[in-house]
């Protein structure tokens, strides 16, 4: 008996909307990655795009535990020697709250061509409660994530 491998005709992509209000950032990101990759489906195949599209709303209301609110920093490099930038979480969350969830999710995705070219495009994050994807008829998705 051979191992099952999903083919493009077997794969069905759905649209799911997640409300991030009051959820913990890391636990939310881990569940989103599981859905983007398709690990929640029995037909999961690592080298195929079997996952669903995810819309995250209320990204500005996500929570952090412990002292991460003061201590968490985002690293970037300009390309010049010694030009490292450390941006505090509070300033990133104030200016662009959607980037906080995007960076958490993208950091958990595999570093492969599939993740860079396909899976990253399946995540849409919005700071408020409105999103422009009503035409796709997304279904609401809730997680049983324990909040601290």
What does this molecule look like?
The chain is α/β, with parallel strands linked by helices and 148 residues long. It has helices spanning 25-37, 68-71, 89-95, 97-108, 113-117; strands at residues 15-19, 53-57, 73-77, 84-88, 123-125, 139-141. Strand 1 (15-19), helix 1 (25-37) and strand 2 form a beta-alpha-beta unit. The protein is built from five helices and six strands. 28% of the residues lie in helices and 18% in strands. The strands form two sheets. A four-stranded parallel beta sheet has the order 5-2-1-6, with helices on one face. It has a two-stranded antiparallel ribbon with strand order 3-4. The mean pLDDT is 95.
What is the compact description of this entry?
The protein is α/β, with parallel strands linked by helices and 148 residues long.
Distance between the termini: 46 Å
Q: Kindly provide the radius of gyration, computed on alpha-carbon positions and rounded to a whole number of angstroms.
A: 17 Å
Mean pLDDT: 95
Count of alpha/pi helices: 5
Query: How large is the share of residues in beta strands?
Result: 15-25%
Based on Cα principal axes, name the global outline.
globular
Class by helix and strand content?
Answer: alpha/beta
Q: Estimate percent helicity.
A: 25-40%
Q: Major beta sheet, specifics?
A: 4 strands, parallel
**Poorly predicted parts:** none
Order of helices and strands: EHEHEEHHHEE
Strand order of the largest sheet: 5-2-1-6
User: Care to count the β-strands?
Assistant: 6
């Amino acid at each position: 008996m051979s191992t099952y491998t999903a083919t493009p005709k077997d794969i069905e992509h759905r649209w799911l909307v997640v409300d991030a209000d009051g959820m913990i950032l890391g636990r939310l990101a881990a569940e989103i990655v599981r859905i983007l990759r398709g690990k929640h489906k029995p037909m999961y195949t690592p080298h195929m795009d079997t996952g669903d599209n995810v819309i995250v709303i209320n990204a500005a209301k996500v929570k952090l535990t412990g002292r991460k609110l003061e201590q968490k920093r985002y690293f970037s490099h300009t390309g010049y020697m010694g030009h490292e930038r450390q941006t505090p979480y509070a300033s990133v969350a104030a200016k662009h709250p959607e980037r906080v969830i995007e960076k958490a999710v993208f950091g958990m995705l595999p570093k492969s061509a599939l993740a860079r070219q396909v899976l990253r495009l399946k995540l849409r994050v919005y700071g408020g409660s409105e999103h422009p994807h009503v035409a796709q008829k997304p279904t609401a998705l809730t997680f049983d994530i324990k909040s601290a």
